[in-house]
UniProtKB/TrEMBL annotation:
It comes from Botrimarina colliarenosi. Keywords: Membrane, Transmembrane, Transmembrane helix. The keyword Transmembrane helix applies. The chain crosses the membrane at residues 20-41. This is Flagellar protein FliL.
Amino acid sequence: MSDQEKDSKASLFAGLTRLAKAVGIIAALVLVEVVGAAMLIPSAEETEKLARELSRAAKGEDAEIEQQDGATVDAGVVTREVELLTDNITRFNPDSDTTLNVDFSVYGVVLADEEEDFLKEFQANTSRIHEQIMLTIHAAESADLANAGLGLIKRQILEKTNRSLGRPMVREVVFTKLNFIER
């Protein structure tokens, strides 16, 4: 075998090696993208649920809610409402020389499976939870109380209640009564 044939075979081998490396790198990138996409693509059940929710939203309907044995079934999740506090607060504001009187009832929505655990924790932490709700209502501005959805107050009560319980057991906060008068 001559030197020219050896150089020709060596350059052919080097070229094939570079080509194999390039194909390997591209295959690895495609594999990483396929795995990443598979992890991000929702399952068939999640897609079906989202489609139902979007369809109801397009029709202007609320989420699918049924009543069953005193519990609410919302998209397959059974929840119960538990009274957290019903009270009346009177607060004087010396800056504006006004008195704010707030009469309210607050309920927490918990999973039906966790209701027994919630009641035990609530029993052990009732005073702490009541204090946190009272402080939240006391700190609320008239504009927050006048907000139709009460979003800020509900989020604050939800966060403080779950922190007092030690874990997130309350899924949602609901006001059944909220009357306030500023004099």
